[in-house]
Amino acid sequence: MILHPLMSSLVLEQVLNGLQLGVMLFMIAAGLTLVFGVMGVLNLAHGALYMCGAFAAAFVAAETGSVPLGILAALPVAALLGFVIERLVIARLYARDHLDQVLATFGIVLFANEMVRILFGPRPLFLDVPAFAAGTVEVLPGTPYPAWRLAIILAGLVVAGGLALLIERTRLGMLIRAGAQNRRMVAALGVDIGRLYAVLFALGGLLAGLAGAMAGPVLAVQVGMGEPVLILAFVVIVIGGIGSVKGAFIGAIIVGLADTLGRAYLPQLARELLPPAAADQIGAALASMTIYLLMAVVLAIRPKGVFGGRD
């Protein structure tokens, strides 16, 4: 009777952690899946925009003493960087194959990492939690949860709703959906594809920068922080379906919950079957493989992802 409420509280906390990770991944994967689905560009530099958004937020917050102002400043910075990258580099690669795109955008990642290291130094920066979300919220009696993590979940849901309205109810959204189905036909109808691509890259950069800024108070802001999250974002869009924002949202929630719950409970489950030393090693290995096994299962059943999309 004493353990049951405690276990329920811990499970709820892990579920909320999974949701928080999921909406963070969605904010990154949404821009990535739009760029990949509409433009057919493998953009490894998307993780660098996430990192630059985090550093911009940390720098402005340190200079002004206002974390919300730092987060707001990260949005135009990341959007502008996305626009510049598209105009200077990506626009020259649309007719090239994916290998050229990977090499070029990987070069951008290396350049961004070194530039950030020169500007801010090699040591991690730390972004304080905003004062209005510094405490905890009792989601259930006896179950406090950090208010900032709840704010991240709320922000992710707002972004998801806003993107749904943008794509389903606006002319830009119509062009995005049409471009995801047939880019050549959209160009043949007189749409300025170059402008559409630049807007998509800027929008993707803005979302990545928002994710980086929101993650700043939770994670250390450091050089190279974009690469691990970029891998997870690619898993998300493969599971959800390339080019589908709805798929990105569902895939991100699935990946966030699977990764968090797997790391929390697989080692414990392994201890029920194996000696503690072996259980910890095997459980940790299985936990790190969970999302990739999940991706393999989804691809075996639905090669285009849960919500379809481009090949």
From TrEMBL:
The keyword Cell membrane applies. GO terms for molecular function: transmembrane transporter activity. It holds the Pfam family BPD_transp_2. GO terms for cellular component: plasma membrane. It is found in: Cell membrane. It comes from the Bacteria. Keywords: Amino-acid transport, Cell membrane, Membrane, Plasmid, Transmembrane, Transmembrane helix, Transport. The chain crosses the membrane at residues 20-41, 48-65, 71-90, 102-120, 147-167, 188-213, 219-240, 247-266, 278-301. Belongs to the binding-protein-dependent transport system permease family. LivHM subfamily. This is Inner-membrane translocator. It comes from Tistrella mobilis (strain KA081020-065).
